[in-house]
Amino acid sequence: MLAKLSTLFAVLPLAAAWPQVMHMNEQMHKREEPPQRQPLFKSGRQNTGLPALGFNAQDQFVNVTRGSGHEFAPPGSGDLRGQCPGLNAAANHGFIPRNGLLNTAQTVSGLGAAYNMAPDLALFLAVVSIALAGDPVSGRWSIGGKFTPTIPLFKATGLVGTHNAYEGDASIIRGDAYLNGGSVGVFQMRSWEHLYQLAEEYTLDDIAAQSDYVTRWSILNNPYYFSAPFSGLVAPAAHNFVINFMSNHSAEKPGGTLTREVLKSFFAVTGDSPGNFVHNRGQERIPENWYRRPTANAMTVPQVLLDVQVNNAMYPGIVRIGGNTGTVNSFAGVDLTDLTGGVFNLGGLAEGNQAACFLLQASLAGLPDVVSPLLGAVGSVLGWATQQLGPLSRQFGCPQLANFDNSLFNGFPGAKFNGNGQS
Ligand code: HEM
Ligand SMILES: *[C@@H]1O[C@H](CO)[C@@H](O)[C@H](O)[C@H]1NC(C)=O
Ligand SMILES: *[C@@H]1O[C@H](CO)[C@@H](O)[C@H](O)[C@H]1NC(C)=O
């Protein structure tokens, strides 16, 4: 419909005479739908990713009833909330502090209790949050906006201030910062409606289709579309988190089921069809009578990478490093071998823990190199994060730290676009 209208404007000779019509025409060009695309194959994966290892009602039941201490309460005026529905819901139920400010131990225990996120993954995600946008001295980070760090040297902007470092373009629902005046938290009804109509019960294969759709949509519409080595993996991974973490589990289906009702609860959406959906900001909610993934299937870092890799094999291009070069549909990729001085190459990522190692190193490559004596012997934020992630890096058998050649990103205007919330 929009495409047709813009074609119409293009053939109308009066368009050139009225600048506002030209402007409208351009606006419309900015909202082009990508053509349909079929996957190369379907994986048929269970919602746990790897096959579920049983069901234990008592262990998996997440008690959010009144008196459990985990009943729902909307955020109060001082509470921090951001663009991640999983974290907002965990905070709204007190699995992590309701004020949205937490340390690594609270991240590991809270997200384990609510979702069976494995300690390695929770620790990794928290360390990156602290290093990028938190306070390494007090060891805290914010799921939303800024907070007061121990010393002003650390920006402590919270997750909302991490555009292209942690948060990225082509998110499952949230709009691209550049297309939304710099905001990273805009609930995009178009994306929601696209996701909603993909199925009545969602699987990883459905979410792969969404991941492919939003990626191609952003390339087609956002001249500043950019996919950094780290945030470019986070957005595709976050797609899978919807299936991996929000599904409900049962004896009949230990791998889990994700219904529209449960999806809406976690995403704070009411309504039941396109045109009447409402996003209720900050109201993300764990449903009553909900069972998390099996403890034996706690979600680890390698599992995250595996699901992303399968999606990318189904729809090549879900994972990419590079961006548009200032106009829409101008994507140019950056070669992994060039970027990492030969330490990583695309083919090798499928082997062993190479992808997990790349993820770890990519996260470190994006850190501010802030130096402070308060950080003790490690000296800097980079040193702090490297030390924190050392055990994981050794556990995965990662190669020597690759030296990322970030100058390769100079030609991408999106790489320098900060978005709001960074100060
Ligand atoms: C320490 C743990 C976590 C951290 C640091 C974290 C961080 C983030 C960040 C930075 C984003 C923005 C990515 C983007 O631009 O698309 C994001 C998005 C997202 N996260 Fe989380 N997250 C965590 C845990 C979870 C959990 C447990 C779930 C699921 C229950 C989850 C589900 C999602 C989803 C679905 C999105 C996409 C939101 C949208 O586009 O509407 N996350 N998260
Ligand atoms: C959930 O918590 C409530 C309140 O503490 C308690 O009465 C109830 O027995 C719990 N339910 C289960 C299944 O443990
Ligand atoms: C989760 O599954 C169980 C078993 O099928 C069911 O009784 C319960 O209502 C489901 N919970 C939600 C929130 O759909």
UniProtKB/TrEMBL annotation:
Keyword Heme: yes
Pfam families found in the cross-reference section: Peroxidase_2 (PF01328)
Record-annotated Heme haloperoxidase family profile domain positions: 68-306
Family: Belongs to the chloroperoxidase family.
Gene3D superfamilies: Chloroperoxidase-like
Organism: Ophiobolus disseminans
Superkingdom classification of source: Eukaryota
Signal peptide: 1-17
InterPro entries assigned: Chloroperoxidase, Chloroperoxidase-like_sf
PROSITE patterns: HEME_HALOPEROXIDASE
Lineage: Eukaryota, Fungi, Dikarya, Ascomycota, Pezizomycotina
Cofactors: heme b
Keywords: Heme, Iron, Metal-binding, Oxidoreductase, Peroxidase, Signal
GO MF annotation, one: peroxidase activity
Protein name, UniProt field: Cloroperoxidase
